[in-house]
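Entry for nicotinamide-adenine-dinucleotide complex. Fields follow.
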Amino acid sequence: MYIGPQGIVHGTYITLLNAGRMYLGLPEDQDLRARTFLTSGLGGMSGAQAKAVEIAGGIGIIAEVDKSRIETRHDQGWLSKYSSDLSEIFEWVEEYKEKGEPVSIGYYGNVVDLWKYVSDNDIPIDLSSDQTSCHDVYNGGYTPQGLTFEQGRELLKNDRREFKSLADNSLKLQFEFIRKMTKRGTFFWDYGNSFMKAVFDAGVAAIARNGKNPDDGFIFPSYVEDIMGPICFDYGYGPFRWVCLSGKHDDLIETDKVALSCIDPKRRGQDRDNFVWIRDAEKNALVVGSQARILYADAAGRVKIALEFNKKVRDGKIGPVMMGRDHHDTGGTDSPFRETANIRDGSNVTSDMAHQIWAGNAARGMTLCVLSNGGGVGTGKAINGGFGLVLDGSERVDSIIRLGLDWDVMGGVARRAWARNEHSIEAVVDWNRMMGNRGHITLPFVSGEGLVEDIVRKKLR
Ligand SMILES: NC(=O)c1ccc[n+]([C@@H]2O[C@H](COP(=O)([O-])OP(=O)(O)OC[C@H]3O[C@@H](n4cnc5c(N)ncnc54)[C@H](O)[C@@H]3O)[C@@H](O)[C@H]2O)c1
């Protein structure tokens, strides 16, 4: 089921579009045309930003200190241009803004210098983030300002203390520039790389919401808690994916066509994004190895698409298809610092959701069920329940699709609805209506925040 970097490109594309809607007020049917996104990192996962911002229609400016990383992304066609001259880069930005065309531009240099340049020259930036490896700053995940990538490696080998001190200063500076720019209207969010924690560890208490410690979170939003959680997972949109087991590219093209025919782009902004994603998937050439596709579909979408695929297999139009999803989803994962970060009723520190979904998937006949500790945020911090289902064209598999996919997705939506997440309540109401007497998810009785206090006060009076 490994699908290479396609998943991260799709996830980043969706995050960028939804950030545009949330923070810039973009209408549901618009993309990031003529909007700027400033960030850093063209590495393993971060390299997806370049491709994703172009697919989302925007202008990306991405700092990277390691020339070899820039060249890899450029040669691969994910990064359109690069330069180490900031004035040249911002001339390109203006040119593409005027043309209204998307472009990804690499800045070969330190992200702190990029922030300094936009701040000193008062260049407006719409959206911004950071994807240096801040989860591992002091082992070289973050190159301090003033050092080239090679000098950073050298210093790390010879004087770790000095490296730490320079990294701390660099993070402090970066924070100051980001703060200046956010006051002028730039939106910044943490991209799951522990940037805000790293800034705090560097000695900047002002990044903590309470100004003292991280107990109440940080001052900037975080991509899952504030963007993906409410806009995707709460509705059930998650990383549904499939692999054509024949290994034939023609089969993948056929499945793309089927998936496209199942999406109504006018239903919600999320459906519009998915429609565009699948429509342009072949053009964007994201396949690496397996003939695979990812699509952030909701429960109804996943069931519809899977049934259509199974029918195509039954009719002999395509070979068997393996479908599943990754962990970055609505229901299969309990991960309080990421996937379940926006479940705020306290239940996100338990792992029963992932267990129930895993066991329920097994009982419903999925081909492959996996329960694992760790993944993404680390061992002890996440439980992941994954599954795979081979679509062999049989009627038996039709019934597994109907039972299993709803369980897998709506189990997560139910948990979110019970935590009183508004969009999940909306999704459950729709699902109950659609299912009639074939299924029912209970809903919470939402009371006013002061209800318990009022009752106690009256009793004690
Ligand atoms: N993209 C996602 O959806 C996602 C999800 C979860 C976590 N993350 C986190 O994002 C971070 C990046 O992941 P990755 O796989 O791309 O790591 P990576 O180490 O492969 O890439 C990070 C890049 O940042 C560059 N860099 C470091 N310091 C720099 C600086 N000061 N200025 C400019 N460039 C600098 C490095 O040279 C490197 O190429 C990690 O912390 C990861 O855990 C990403």
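NOTE: The chain has two domains: 6-227, 232-426.
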